[in-house]
Amino acid sequence: MGRLFYFYKIAKCKFKNNYIPKPKPPLPCHSPKGEPVHVRAAAVHGFTFNVNRFAFRRMTRQRSFEFEFVFEFSCLYFINFANFFKQGFVSYKMVKIGNIELGGFPLLLAPMEDVSDPPFRALCKEQGCDMMYTEFISVEGLIRDATKSLQKLDIYDEERPIGIQIFGAELSSMMRAAEIVEEAKPEVLDINFGCPVKKVVNKMCGAGILQDIPKMVELTRAVVNSTSLPVTVKTRLGWDDSTKYIVEVAERLQDVGIRALSIHGRTRKQMYKGEADWTLIGEIKNNPRISIPIFGNGDIDSPQKAELYRNRYGVDGIMIGRASIGYPWIFREIKHYFKTGEILPPPTTEERVGAARQHLRHSIEWKGERLGVLEMRRHYTNYFRGFPHIKKYRSQLVTNLEPEVLFGVLDEIEETYCEFEMMNS
C-alpha cells in the first residue's frame, strides 16, 4: 500500500545579465557548510510541513540564474505517518566528541553531586542513556589524594562512554588533575563552569568563573594542553541577565580546543528558578563559526518537550539532569517517542520497586552501609511518585538505617501496589 501526497512547488527565479549571485548564509536547519542537518517539523501535527529549502545556482558565461525552492507536502492519506516521517525524512548526523561516537541524537546524563554515582549511572545506562558523566570532582581534592575525590574516579566498562568532570580555579591544580583523570581512562574529561552552589562559586569555581571570562578561557586552554583526552565544558548562559556572553564564550572555548559544549539555559543568578531559556543555545548551534557538538540542558522532563526543543533549537543532543532522579526511565521514554511518536506507559510497580532495590543494594556495596543508605533517600520520592497513600512507606524508607528493614519495606510496597495495580488495570 502506498502513501498518497499532494504536493506543490513554489519556485522563485532571479535573473540578471552578467551577475553572479553572492552565496547566502546557511539556513538555521543547515550545518555551517550548508548541508541539510534535520527537518523542522513544527506543523507536523497538521500534516503540512516543509521538507527542505535549498538554493540552486547555475552560471553561464554571460548569465546567471538563481532558483530557490520550497517543497511543501500535504498529507491526505497515510499509514503509520508518524513513523514514516521520522524514519523517512528526518536523519541526524553521527555526533562525535573527538573520536567517540554517540549516535545520531544522543541523550546525556548530567553530572550531579551525590546523584550521578555508579549505582545510579548503571540504571540510566540500562534505560538507554548514551553518555554519562561522573559527579563533579574537586581538583584540590584530587591532587591531595582525598578519599572522596579519588572514589569518584571509579568507572566501569558497562558505563562507557563516560566522562569525568572536574572543577577548580587554580591553573596548576587543574593541569595536575587533568593528568590524574587521564590515568582513570575515561573517554572524556569535562570541566564544570556551571555549578551555581554558593560554596563553589565563592571560590571562583563552577559558575563563579563566569565573572572572569579570560580566566575561564585560560584554565580551559591549560587543561586541553595537559591531556590527550577530548576536553568538554559544561556551563551556563552567564552570571546574570546583563552578562549573557555565552555566544562569544562558545567561540573562544572552541578556539582553545574543547570538543563539545553543554549549556544550561539559565544564569548563575537564576540558580534553578524560572524557566530555562534555550534561545542562545540555539543561536550558538546555528553560528557558522561553531563546529563542535552543542548539547542543551535545562527543564527537559518529558518526551514531548525533548522533541520540541530538538526541533526548535537544532542542538546535537540533550543533557538530562533533575528529571532523571528516581526516574531513569525518562531516557527510554524519550527514545521511544523519537522513534515512534508514541508515549510509553509509565513503569510498572514491579519495575519501580526493582530499580529502587537495585539502586539501594549497589549504593551500599559502593559507598558502605551508612552512607549508601543515607544518600539513597533523595531518590525514593521520585521512584514512588503518584502512588496513593505512599507517605507511610516513604517515611520508613527515609528514617530507617538498617538495610534489612529497608528491603523489607520495598518488598511490602511491591506486594501492596502490584495488587492495587492489578485491581485497577
In brief, what are we looking at here?
The chain is of the alpha/beta class and 425 residues long.
Summary keywords:
20% strand; single chain; 3 domains; 425 residues; alpha/beta; disordered N terminus; 37% helix; Non-ribosomal Peptide Synthetase Peptidyl Carrier Protein, Chain A; 3-stranded antiparallel β-sheet; 8-stranded parallel beta barrel
What report would you give on this structure?
Strands 6-7-9-10-11-12-13-14 form an eight-stranded parallel barrel, surrounded by five helices. Helix content is 37%, strand content 20%. The protein is built from 15 helices and 14 strands. The radius of gyration is 25 Å and the shape is globular. α12 (349-367) runs antiparallel to α13 and α12 (349-367) packs antiparallel against α15 (403-423). The longest helix is centred in the last third of the chain and has 21 residues, at 403-423. It has three domains: 4-88, no CATH class; 96-340, Alpha-Beta Barrel (TIM Barrel), CATH 3.20.20; 349-423, Non-ribosomal Peptide Synthetase Peptidyl Carrier Protein, Chain A (Orthogonal Bundle). The chain has 425 residues and is an alpha/beta fold. The two termini are 36 Å apart. α9 links the parallel β12 and β13.
